[in-house]
Predict the 3D structure of the following.
Amino acid sequence: MGIVTGARISLADHYVVPSGSMEPTVMTSDHVVVDKLAYGLHVPLVGGYALHFAAPARGDVVVLESPEDGRVLLKRVVAVPGDEVSVVGGTLVIDGRAVPVDAREAAPIERLGAATHRINLAYGGGPDFGPLHVPAGRFLVLGDNRGNSRDGRWFGLVARDAVLGRVEGVIVRDGHLGWVRMR
């Protein structure tokens, strides 16, 4: 039992998504698989990472501890250290350039670095943010459902040690086992 608990705490885990803040990428009640070793070896009882590997990248979908109340959240990393970032009307602007959005489809498609994903602007773009320079060790996270997400525009930048892992995919959707890989 101790080995299973240790592996779940440090290596991989799954979470049930509690809200629609990441729709249409991740839906309410989806079960997601999280790689907890993606960014380093996290030490849960001590807090933070004992070893750092790669840093979260722009476009990664991550689970993190909310800076407001410690709850586990699921969001997308949209700005990394060194970026000058703002959000205006739901449009992400990095280093003075709007992140490309293809609005020809039913849901707009945002091209954020190597990640191409749908965003939801049905509830508007949410609050404007910035401009702000992202310092070392901090990240801005947003929900893909920009007008219906309590995210970094509300609680500010997130420390690297608050990021618990990278979401690899959805394993259960609508009660059916399957696999939807994160992009």
Q: What stands out?
A: Residues 13 and 148 are 26 Å apart (CA to CA). The chain has a mean pLDDT of 88.
